[in-house]
Amino acid sequence: MTGRVIEWAAFGLALATTLTAGALAAETHKEYRFNVGPKAGISVNNPYGSISVRPSTGNFIVVNAVLSSDKVEVDHNVTANRVEVVSHLLPGADAQSGKIEYEILVPPDASVTLHSSTGTLHVEKLRGDVTLEGASATVDVRDIADAHVHVKTLNGPVTLTNVQQGHVEVDSLSGNVTLNEVTGPLVQVISTSGGISYIGDFGDSGEYRLTSHSGDIEALVPDSTSADVSARSVRGEVHDDIHLQPKQHVPYVIEKGSAFWGTMGHAAVSSTVVLRSFSGKIHLRKRSAK
Amino acid sequence: MTCVELQESLAENETGSSAAQRAHLGGCPQCAALVAELLVIACSAGELRAAHEPSPRVWNSIEIALRKEGLVRPQHRSSAFFPALNAAGAWRWLLPLAAALLVSAGILVRQHLPAHQIANNAYVGSGSSDGLESDAAVAGLNDDDLIQEIAHQSPALQAQYTENLRRVNQYILDAKSSIAADPNDSEAHRSLMEAYEQKAMLFDLALDRSLP
């Protein structure tokens, strides 16, 4: 019995190894390297698969691509200081066979434009402009400073983490948007039905506008926050758990439970925060100290 | 079709719906973004409030300037009591006056109309599908065309786009109803702009080359 068990185990292991090797053999790894000047640009259009962008250590761009099959190929074009990479789907390609996973290194000051329908779009530790677009792509942006960040998704979730001094614009029709320690002169999120969650202190100056037609909006802020906050929901509920100094002259009627407008912290050094929803809930909450 | 040719063709077809335009837009994100912005402007242009009618003094000033330039000849005196009235000259003198009177009357009537009636007149069909269809006719947007295009390009995404289109249309309707309730609500106007931007983004993503 023991011998038979061992035989079956060995057979299973051999079979698994063969299948894995076969799958890996169908994959193709390609690497491309481009020398660029300061403030280079890179654009990647990848219908299926993820794109991950990280900083390189010099003035060069490295594109590592893992192709799922021979039904897709990588086209690239270099014009002046700009690199364009396109995943070219060949006849018969589908979401599986047409998938390419990209790992890209770019100079920290490069501007990055990524298009994907389904894959994850990940960008981190850059100082150049970041533009991300995709229908269902999951977007993850972190550790960006002094840059413009533009995100457009249909229903993919969007997460921005530690984006400092940024000019941030996020448009998501139905994807949830999470902003964690995102500050800058302008931070704007517009969604039709996605929820918006902000965790942070709104910086010391800037305009923050979080709007969702039917999604809920939640802002979790520490005691040290200085901000002029207005919130209004036409049909939804509005709650604030933080003491606000009411503003005297406002352009609309403040109905308790549907709107509030006041100042927290020091009015002299504060950001302007606007929270708007048509039918979603709005909640301003205090973040407890760690 | 090059970018310049596409921009010139927008004068004839601003929606970018022709086959040649679509072929170019599918491969040019800059032009696709331009078309999307034009669609937003076209959608929201109808929401702009009508410019105030000029006061009668303006018409009089125009008449004086025209007379100085000799484009309007002074009327011949034919009667001690009605010096400007003769067969042809009377019309030249009376027409500007009649126009000024009509404009003044229009201003007075508008000022006395209730605000909600003005808003309802401005947003005919608000709250019903007819309003969106008239918007679509103005902007050349056609939801059915978009869904058919998605169904042709990516059938797997059709349900997603249909649902999101429904949601954004509801967004537009709700924003319009807020404006109708209070035409002076600037936030409501901004909300309508944002709703149209969301719809334009939906179309942009559908035309985007990232769509498989």
What does the model show?
The complex is a heterodimer of chains A (290) and B (212). Chain A is mainly β and 290 residues long. Chain A is built from 1 helix and 25 strands. Chain A has a domain at 138-290. Chain A has one helix at residues 2-26; strands spanning 28-35, 41-45, 51-55, 60-67, 72-79, 82-89, 100-106, 111-115, 121-124, 130-134, 139-145, 148-153, 158-164, 167-172, 177-182, 186-191, 196-199, 207-212, 217-221, 227-233, 238-240, 245-246, 259-264, 271-277, 282-286. Chain B has helices spanning 3-9, 19-25, 29-45, 56-68, 89-112, 115-122, 129-139, 143-153, 158-181, 186-207. In chain B, helix 3 (29-45) runs antiparallel to helix 10 and helix 9 (158-181) runs antiparallel to helix 10. Residues 77-85 and 115-130 of chain B have low confidence and may be disordered. The chains are: A mainly beta (290), B mainly alpha (212). Chains A and B meet through loops of A and helix 9 and helix 10 of B.
Low-confidence stretches of chain A: none
Number of strands of chain B: 0
Strand arrangement, largest sheet of chain A? 5-6-2-8-10-12-14-16-18-24-20-23-22
- The helix count of chain A comes to 1
Proportion of residues in helical segments of chain A: under 10%
The major sheet of chain B is characterized as:
none
Taking the sheet with the most strands of chain A, its summary is: 13 strands, mixed
Average the pLDDT over all residues of chain B and give the rounded result.
70
**Pair with the most extensive interface?**
A-B, 35 and 32 residues
Q: Span from first to last CA of chain B?
A: 22 Å
Distance between the termini of chain A: 58 Å
Secondary structure tally, helices of chain B: 10
Helical residues, percent of chain B: 55-70%
Shape of chain A: globular
Q: Any idea what the radius of gyration of chain B is? A: 25 Å
Low-confidence stretches of chain B: 77-85, 115-130
Query: In percent, how much strand structure appears in the residues of chain B?
Result: under 5%
Rg over alpha carbons of chain A: 24 Å
The class by helix and strand makeup of chain A works out as: mainly beta
User: Which oligomeric form is depicted?
Assistant: heterodimer
